[in-house]
Amino acid sequence: MPPPLTTEALRELVDRAQGHSPDAWEDLYLHCRPKLVGYARRRLPSAQAADDAVSEAFARAIAKIDDFRWEGIGFEGWMFGITRNVVLEIQRAFTRDRRIEDRQAAASPPPVPDEVGANLERSEEREHVRRAFARLGDDDRELLELRVVGGLTADEVAAVLGKQAGAVRMAQSRALDRLRAAMKEVQDA
Amino acid sequence: MRDDELLDLLGDALREPVPAPDPQRVEAIRTAAERRQQAASADADGSVASIAESRSRRRFGAGALAAAAVVAALVAGSIALVAARDGGVDGEVEYSGSITGSGGEGELVVTKTGIGRVIELDTDDLPILPTGELYEVWFVGPGDTPDSPNRISAGTFHPDPHGVSQVTFAAAVDPALYPRMEITAEPGDGDPSPSGVVVLAVQVG
């Protein structure tokens, strides 16, 4: 995982990318890829497909970078929006015959290995929340994932999903309520 | 548990280690940026035609390449500039040939690259569509029907005002799984499903 970039460093990289610097694009790719691949991985049948989708998203970003503006949504939010479109296009080919669900089930994210001596209680809690998260609807999962894994603000999530920021905040609150309820079900099971 | 604590816990549970990327993927990103850089330079130099000629050079063989180079040189006024644009898409060409149908004929190249398949389409035959309508490029798999589509869109385009379509797309798709390519005319009504109006088609895998 590359070290986090400051806002200023990211802006400087994007400025250079808008001048089509290959070095800047490489740095942006390495910076954004883990989050984007993680997002795509939970929606596509294989790790290879997720990496392909992110590569495709970057190819589109390189072609469209002249259109990018720092208005309302940051570069990472913009990249999530492009990646989401690529993922949806790939999913669309599968949705009618349910193959995507079968493959997603077969390719559910592997458990994150705990470090030796890691807190067992925290580990159990993570497992509970992971199983509870899997019980949520697609919309709830995507919104929460963009917030916590993508690290996007509510405003950025709203831009990615094409919704109002207020609606996203309300939807997040309801999604967290449903997650709590699902966690209780998992713990009681 | 407060909302912020639950969000932290969820993030902790969902974040997965992602292996470092294949160096070829990184190189493909750099190559795409370099090509974009070259195209921007060409635009700035007012020599857009030389890029189209560069693509033609790769497609139509040595004789045509030489002719294209001369034409491009005349247009751009610089043979050196044209030579610098040579190269096309780096990767393994999986299909290079005609694509035909009711919309006429075009030249299609599908290249396997580190960022997926790059599709280049050249045609002067497609009718100019009314405002709001567009053409869509599809990879079509076995068993595709209107009720049960098995296809992936590679993108949409319009011919330019002169009826010329020289377009390049990238798609994360394997022609071995989606071996037929189709160009359809779409009404631009927001419906993502294909219209069924196939204007060009060819088997590529």
Spatial separation of the terminal alpha carbons of chain B = 54 Å
Annotated CATH architecture of the largest domain in chain A: Orthogonal Bundle
Q: Level of helix content of chain B?
A: 25-40%
Assembly category: heterodimer
Integer tally of domains of chain B:
2
Query: How many beta-strand elements of chain B?
Result: 8
Mean pLDDT across every amino acid position of chain B: 73
Largest sheet of chain B: 4 strands, antiparallel
Label the structural class of chain A: mainly alpha
Q: What's the CATH H-level homologous superfamily of the largest domain in chain A?
A: RNA polymerase sigma factor, region 2, helix turn helix motif
Q: Which class of secondary structure composition applies to the elements of chain B? A: alpha+beta
Tally of DSSP helical segments of chain A: 9
Using only C-alpha atoms, the radius of gyration of chain B works out to 21 Å
Rg calculated over all Cα atoms of chain A: 18 Å
What top-tier CATH class of the largest domain in chain A fits best?
Answer: Mainly Alpha
Structure write-up:
The complex is a heterodimer of chains A (189) and B (205). With 189 residues, chain A is mainly alpha-helical. In chain A, 73% of the residues lie in helices and 0% in strands. Chain A has helices at 7-18, 22-41, 47-64, 75-95, 99-106, 120-135, 138-148, 154-161, 165-188. Chain A is globular. Chain B folds into 2 domains: 23-84, no CATH class; 92-203. In chain B, 34% of the residues lie in helices and 30% in strands. Chain B has helices spanning 3-14, 23-45, 48-59, 61-76, 79-84, and strands at 92-101, 104-113, 116-123, 134-140, 151-157, 165-171, 180-186, 198-203. In chain B, the strands form 2 sheets. A 4-stranded antiparallel β-sheet of chain B has the order 1-2-3-6, with no helix packed on it. In chain B, strands 5-4-7-8 form a 4-stranded antiparallel β-sheet, with no helix packed on it. The longest helix of chain B is centred in the N-terminal third of the chain and has 23 residues, at 23-45. The radius of gyration of chain B is 21 Å and the shape is globular. The chains are: A mainly alpha (189), B alpha+beta (205). At the A-B interface, helix 2, helix 3, helix 4, helix 6 and helix 7 of A face helix 1, helix 2 and strand 5 of B.
